[in-house]
């Protein structure tokens, strides 16, 4: 580790890149606590300050992937990975998307953590807990729930799937800034399908789609649906256009333009649902209430977020030929109560 730090932490002009194997070994030393917090923080911050190479990101991912390998008895599985550090400007409806997609015929998993730096924002864990859904399933229980034809979705928490990474929460708080951990944790594959694995995640900065495309392939995903969403989430603005990349073979390819109107979503003044309190625990209750109301058929931006997000996922997965077709399917399962039934049957 000393040798690695000497090379990556020598200033903007003199710092040198390290190999994938060295990045893997350095990250493994951090996870296994074979180095102290000072060296661990230096390793991660120095990589970020010089900007991680793809080889270095893949090496960090290699070390984090030790928990991969659990399987669900389904042919296809779509994993939703919103930013693990959450949302602090709006209320995400994406915690309800897995149940909607399951009702649309796509078995679905969402992953996350209760709270983590640097944002400490509102997360899937908090919203699902406020809605009374399970947030502490082990991989086996999640796999059985996904394989259950009456449910078809589950949530897996980092505390269960990757306890070594989860134990770095305090170190991440002290480092303050975003590191390679934030980049890599969203592409981990805690549960796999028998044949086809898809990842659905968002981005903010334009340099991330090719990074996520390469990391998704390294993690074992056949397809990555990468969307420019609000606060880096999977649901784009409800009032403006966005871009989607359908990455295969580790290549992001050319983006597809997304327009809310193509999914029948029209909001001239609402980009996303604002967070009323700016306090995640309190906002989680409001998000749960709005999500449950949307699942029960109440019109508004919460329901439209679910329709738009589900339409994008189906389109990116190749299940439908257009956003409009995906939106019609999403509205049908919401109007029929099928999505709500699946959401409430998770246990």
Q: Describe it for me?
A:
It is a single chain. With 347 residues, this protein is of the alpha/beta class. It has two domains: 2-67, Transferase, Pyrimidine Nucleoside Phosphorylase, Chain A, domain 3; 76-345, Pyrimidine Nucleoside Phosphorylase, Chain A, domain 2 (3-Layer(aba) Sandwich). It contains 17 helices and seven strands. The chain has a seven-stranded mixed beta sheet with strand order 3-2-1-4-5-6-7, with helices on both faces. Strand 6 (242-248) and strand 7 (256-258) form a beta hairpin. Helix 3 (20-31) packs parallel to helix 5 (54-64) and helix 14 (280-295) packs across helix 15 (301-316). The mean pLDDT is 96.
Question: What's a concise summary of this model?
Answer:
The protein is α/β, with parallel strands linked by helices and 347 residues long. The chain contains 17 helices and seven strands.
In CATH terms, the superfamily of the largest domain is: Nucleoside phosphorylase/phosphoribosyltransferase catalytic domain
pLDDT under 50 segments (min length 5)?
A: none
CATH class of the largest domain: Alpha Beta
CATH topology description of the largest domain? Pyrimidine Nucleoside Phosphorylase, Chain A, domain 2
Instruction: Please state the average pLDDT score.
Output: 96
| Residue share in helix | 40-55%
The order of strands across the largest sheet is 3-2-1-4-5-6-7
> How far do the termini sit from each other?
44 Å
Reading the helices and strands in chain order gives HHHHHEHEHHEHHHHEHEEEHHHH
Structural class: alpha/beta
Q: Please tally the helical runs, counting DSSP H or I stretches of 4 or more residues.
A: 17
Total domain modules: 2
Q: Which term fits the overall shape?
A: globular
What CATH architecture of the largest domain do you see? Answer: 3-Layer(aba) Sandwich
**How many beta-strand segments?**
7
Radius of gyration: 19 Å
What fraction strand?
Answer: 5-15%
Major beta sheet, specifics?
Answer: 7 strands, mixed
């Amino acid at each position: 580790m000393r040798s690695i730090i000497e090379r990556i932490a020598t200033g903007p002009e003199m710092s040198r890149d390290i190999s994938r194997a060295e990045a893997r070994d350095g990250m493994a030393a951090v996870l296994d606590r074979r180095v102290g917090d000072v060296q661990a923080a230096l390793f991660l911050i120095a990589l970020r300050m010089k900007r991680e190479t793809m080889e270095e990101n893949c090496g960090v991912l290699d070390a984090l992937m030790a928990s991969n390998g659990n399987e669900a008895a389904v042919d296809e599985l779509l994993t939703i990975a919103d930013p693990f550090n959450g949302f602090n400007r709006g209320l995400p409806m994406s915690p309800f998307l897995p149940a909607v997609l399951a009702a649309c015929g796509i078995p679905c998993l969402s992953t996350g953590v209760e709270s983590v730096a640097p944002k400490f924002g509102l997360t899937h864990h908090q919203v699902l807990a406020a809605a009374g859904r399970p947030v502490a399933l082990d991989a086996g229980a999640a796999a059985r729930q996904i394989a259950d034809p009456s449910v078809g979705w589950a949530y897996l928490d980092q505390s269960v799937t990757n306890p070594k990474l989860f134990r770095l929460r305090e170190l991440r708080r002290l480092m303050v800034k975003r590191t390679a951990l934030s980049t890599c944790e969203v592409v981990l594959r805690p549960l796999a399908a028998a044949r086809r694995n898809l990842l659905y995640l968002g981005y903010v900065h334009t340099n991330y789609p090719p990074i996520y495309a390469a990391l998704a392939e390294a993690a074992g995903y056949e397809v990555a649906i990468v969307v420019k969403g609000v606060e880096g989430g999977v649901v784009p603005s409800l009032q403006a256009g966005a871009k989607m990349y359908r990455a295969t073979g580790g290549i992001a390819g050319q983006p597809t333009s997304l327009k809310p109107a193509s999914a029948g979503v029209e909001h001239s003044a609402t980009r996303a649902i604002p967070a009323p309190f700016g306090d995640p625990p309190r906002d989680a209750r409001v998000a749960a209430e709005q999500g449950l109301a949307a699942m029960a058929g109440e019109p508004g931006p919460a329901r439209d977020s679910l329709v738009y997000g589900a339409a994008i996922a189906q389109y990116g997965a190749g299940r439908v030929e257009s956003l409009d077709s995906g939106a019609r399917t999403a509205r049908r399962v919401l109007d029929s109560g099928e999505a709500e039934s699946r959401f409430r049957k998770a246990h």
